[in-house]
Amino acid sequence: MQLRKLTIPELDDLAGLLGELSEAQSKDAIPGGAYLVGGWLGTYWSEPFLRGDLSRSLLYYSNLLVLDPLADYFDDRSRLPTTHPIRVRRPEDAKFNTVTSGPAIWSTHGTFMAFRDDPDRAVARFAAIVENLYSLESLIKSGVVVLRSQWPILSDRRDALATSVRHDVRSQAMQSLARQPSTADDAFAVWDNLRGLSLSFSGGAIPSDEPWETQHIFYYLAKTLAIADASGAQYVPSTERDLELLRTKVGSAARFTHPGGFLEEVARVVVPSFDVPIARAVEMRESSSGFEDWRSTLDRIRRAGAADNSEELRERVQDELRPAVRAVEAELGRSSLLSSLDKTGSDFIFTGGLAAVAATVGGGNPYVAASAAATSGLVSWIRRAYGPRSQGGPDAVLAALVRRSKKS
Known about the structure:
By secondary structure, the chain is mainly alpha-helical. It is 53% helix and 7% strand.
């Protein structure tokens, strides 16, 4: 591929051009709004290992706001704030050492800046990012997934972010929550690629610096809210503890976390393979009211099963959605979904595993092909071919998921 023949000076030129484009877009609101999902998805959404998570999210959110991976790759991190150093007293002589940490250190892993002295790695990583984006071209072109660079926003709102962190550092409620013990699964994020790293010196930090041990948790929350706000999007935390932190900061406006486990159960019932929601995303949203009806259906099921354990949730989703899937299958006159399900009752296992992703993405470009087919009139042809009744509401979304292109 020609991308892998680029030189460092040529990448420098590309970095400048992409920087200008991201600056121009940074203040553009997304028509109709969008959702910025916390956790790894908002940052690493284009990576093959998260393709399953992305696919499941497209079952639920009409539009996703995500961070631009090329902007993250090329930015020089000069717009990150200076963090408050922590002075730690040495027991042997009562003097202190100064400990400095923060995103300026953590965020450079895997970036152009880190690879600059190794041209082969710098070019290889750039090419991999572009290939990931190309495989998801239909989502980007259609606006289902909206990319934004975080760096102009962090620069424009630098003072506001600093004020927010100072407020949270002084807040007893925020400090109490941030200092609660956590596990690897529910630790707070301190940067896009890092969760759970906390600074605590067992009384060694001098008293005036001790409250600043939690500053990175607060900065990450503030910058995530700023990125969402700049585009008119809503931040959706990925864990219950993230939701609790958000509620403590902004009050009762924060309603729910990203329903990852629930969407896994939905996918087991309605998705024949992990790539279908990606390939059919535009078609699923052909009628905005239909997609909203579909999401309302999922919301109703999710709320009803809020207290369910994992087995009860699986049964609830099956009981609610499988009759609708079968009705749509009958309407379409083909068994594309049910042939993927074990008639004895065991479900097709929906997985976003790396091996499955690599096998699909590696052989051609099904995402671009699906987009081209949709825009050339395939959707309307299928509707004419498979029955007199035009489907609406949730059934229209289910039909888009159930349908599969004929094999040549």
